[in-house]
């Protein structure tokens, strides 16, 4: 069975600080996909990134970066120089070959204070 | 990415009534799912909406409570039947392809009094 754990329920930082959101996953499959989504106060889910299990290269997109480590089953998300607009709930999700839908973690609420 | 429209965006309903939520996609999609997000919680999959056949429900969700239709590859409905306050949630339609990410509608926020 697949499982996604986001141990950090809520994080509060001051603007311009760096922040890392943790994600640990469990799956028996060797082929799987990992995702991050952002849910701002408006409620819409915004897709941020997809990573497949065969690609362990870290990825950077502007102030966002992702660190995928199969050895620790983790897919962590770092925001550099955080901004107030980054305040949202962030969900990590997993899709393996056993399911067509995504399994979501419980989410981490990020509050960036001005 | 597909553009997904959900109706209604929000509603306040009375206990014991039913409400149907519509999901319209601007292109044909293989997979369509319905998720529920209870207040302050994560997303829980209700069912996979199968085109031309009965939906596939997750454990804890039944067809009598959440009937789903999917008459074609661009449209689906979810009905929340005989509602109680515990059904107050955001209901989200999502679409995607086999290897890719899912995209979500803006959600339908239901409050049951």
Could you describe the 3D structure shown?
- The complex is a heterodimer of chains A (114) and B (113).
- In chain A, strands 2, 5, 6, 10, 11 and 12 form a six-stranded mixed beta sheet that branches. Chain A has a four-stranded antiparallel beta sheet with strand order 3-9-8-7, with no helix packed on it. In chain A, strands 1-4 form a two-stranded antiparallel ribbon.
- In chain A, strand 10 and strand 11 (103-104) form a beta hairpin.
- Chain A contains no helices and twelve strands.
- Chain A has strands spanning 3-5, 10-14, 19-21, 24-26, 32-39, 46-52, 59-61, 64-69, 74-79, 88-96, 103-104, 108-113.
- The N and C termini of chain A lie far apart (41 Å).
- The relative contact order of chain A is 0.35.
- In chain B, strands 2, 4, 5, 6, 9, 10 and 11 form a seven-stranded mixed beta sheet that branches. Chain B has a four-stranded antiparallel beta sheet with strand order 1-3-8-7, with no helix packed on it.
- In chain B, strand 9 (89-96) and strand 10 form a beta hairpin.
- Chain B is globular, with a radius of gyration of 13 Å.
- The mean pLDDT of chain B is 93.
- At the A-B interface, strand 5, strand 6 and strand 11 of A face strand 5, strand 9 and strand 10 of B.
Topology:
The complex is a heterodimer of chains A (114) and B (113).
Chain A: E1 3-5, E2 10-14, E3 19-21, E4 24-26, E5 32-39, E6 46-52, E7 59-61, E8 64-69, E9 74-79, E10 88-96, E11 103-104, E12 108-113
Parallel strand pairs in A: 2-12
Antiparallel strand pairs in A: 1-4, 3-9, 5-6, 5-10, 7-8, 8-9, 10-11, 10-12
Chain B: E1 4-7, E2 10-13, E3 19-25, E4 31-37, E5 43-48, E6 56-57, E7 68-72, E8 75-80, E9 89-96, E10 102-104, E11 108-112
Parallel strand pairs in B: 2-11
Antiparallel strand pairs in B: 1-3, 3-8, 4-5, 4-9, 5-6, 7-8, 9-10, 9-11
Summed up, the helix count of chain B is 0
Number of strands of chain B: 11
- Point out poorly predicted stretches of chain B: none
Major β-sheet annotation of chain A: 6 strands, mixed
């Amino acid at each position: 069975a697949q499982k996604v754990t986001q141990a950090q329920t809520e994080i509060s930082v001051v603007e311009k600080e760096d922040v890392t959101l943790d994600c640990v996953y469990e799956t028996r499959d060797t082929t799987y996909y990992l995702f991050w989504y952002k849910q701002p106060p408006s409620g819409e889910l915004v897709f941020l990134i997809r990573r497949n299990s065969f690609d362990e290269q870290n990825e950077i997109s502007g102030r966002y970066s992702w660190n995928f480590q199969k050895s620790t089953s983790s897919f962590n998300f770092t925001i550099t120089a955080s901004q107030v607009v980054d305040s949202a709930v962030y969900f990590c999700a997993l899709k393996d070959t056993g399911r067509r839908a995504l399994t979501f973690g419980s989410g981490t609420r990020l509050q960036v204070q001005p | 990415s597909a553009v997904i429209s959900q109706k209604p965006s929000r509603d306040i309903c009375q206990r014991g009534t039913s409400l149907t939520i519509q999901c319209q996609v601007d292109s044909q999609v293989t997979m369509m799912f319905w998720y529920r997000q209870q207040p302050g919680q994560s997303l829980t999959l209700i069912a996979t909406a199968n085109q031309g056949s009965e939906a596939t429900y997750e454990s804890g969700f039944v067809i009598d409570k959440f009937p789903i239709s999917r008459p074609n590859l661009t449209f689906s409905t979810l009905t929340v039947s005989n509602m109680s306050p515990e059904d107050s949630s955001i209901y989200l339609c999502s679409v995607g392809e086999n290897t890719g990410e899912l995209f979500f509608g803006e959600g339908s926020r239901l409050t049951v009094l």
